[in-house]
Amino acid sequence: MAKIVAGIGCSHVLAIGDAIDLGKTEDEYWKGLFDGFKRSKELMSELKPDIIIEVFNDHGSAMPLQYIPTFSLGVASEFKPADEGWGARRVPIVKGDPEFAWHLAEALILDEFDMTIINEMDVDHGLTVPLSLMFGQTREWPCPVIPVCVNVLTYPVPTGKRCFALGRAIRKAVEAYEKDLRVVILGTGGMSHQVHGERCGLINSDWDKKFLDRLTTNPQELAEIPLLEYVRETGAEGIETVMWLIMRGALNDDVEEAYRFYHVPASNTAVGNIILINS
Ligand code: DHB
Ligand code: FE
User: Fold this and answer.
1) Which residue owns the Cα nearest ligand 1 atom 1?
2) Which of 4, 51, 123, 214 has the fewest CB atoms below 10 angstroms from its CB?
3) How does DSSP classify residue 62?
4) 267: Cβ below 6 Å to ligand 1?
5) Element (H, E) at 264
């Protein structure tokens, strides 16, 4: 039986990808951030996932505004890095696992989560930057990745409660898969940031840190927070953080917090990373 062994929350700032790709990780501006992710990489090599389910959002790179699926699932055998305007990141192609992904699609849809099925998609920084942060620069990603894409760009976005329930359903679907696989679920995006308009540059470290506390110890209560609170407290783009609740919903009620890191700023955003072990 497949089993979810850990959940990870991780920001996905575009400029972090540039800093890695352009060799700037030791620069004064970036060093503190990348030092914080050294322990994350060690923990990932201890966790040795056979497969990753990565919950992320596309930023208009693959999904045109003509179609806005709320929840979707990538069933392709590979996903190429997207060109976000200045050429694709030179990171490995993301390999999928069509057999496992189709199992998830079937299990989730029959469990009344109507996932849109994606047969082809290029993946942007929302998916590739967290992989770089967790695994570093590598010729190949260490395992297949199943993309779960969430609309957090265009109103209306799914509630925290619905995201948490999707996590629960993903867990059930994983445990119904007959192969013995160690699955890690990764929730990306956030934390507080707004990159346009009057409140551009908004960071709310107090709220972010409280979010991390509650994510570990009281996720059911966290899932009840209205979307407006995310926007008010963490900025319009800070609402991406709601995707971490999909990750958390897929874990046990009690988890061990193996690592937490929080850093400000990275290109006008607050960066968070948390590693929760499904003990
Ligand atoms: C940036 C990246 C994001 O993914 C986002 O949601 C907002 C800002 C950035 O790199 O500045
Ligand atoms: Fe984003």
Assistant:
1) 13
2) 214
3) S
4) yes
5) strand 256-266
Q: Which of 12, 59, 103, 125 is catalytic?
A: 125
- The first and second tokens of residue 58, run together, are 């596309």
13 CA distance to ligand 1 middle (Å): 5
Active site residue 193: yes
Q: Say yes or no: CB of residue 193 within 6 Å of ligand 1.
A: yes
Low pLDDT (below 70) residues in the chain = none
Q: Is 13 in the pocket of ligand 1 (CB under 6 A)?
A: yes
**Contacts of 257 by beta carbon, 8 Å cutoff, 6+ apart:** 216, 274, 275, 276, 277
Is the Cβ–Cβ distance between 149 and 63 less than 8 Å?
A: yes
Q: Which two tokens stand for residue 148?
A: 């779960």
Residue 115's pLDDT is: 98
> Token pair 């908004």 is at which residue?
202
Pocket probe for ligand 1: among 61, 86, 237, the residue whose CB has the most ligand atoms within 8 Å is 237
Q: How many residues does the chain have?
A: 279
Rounded to 5 degrees, what are φ and ψ at 275? -125, 115
Q: Is 194 in the pocket of ligand 1 (CB under 6 A)?
A: no
Distance CA 141, CA 135 (A): 7
- Joined tokens for residue 149: 């894409």
pLDDT of residue 103: 98
pLDDT by residue (tens digit) across 249-273?
A: 999 999 999 999 999 999 989 999 9
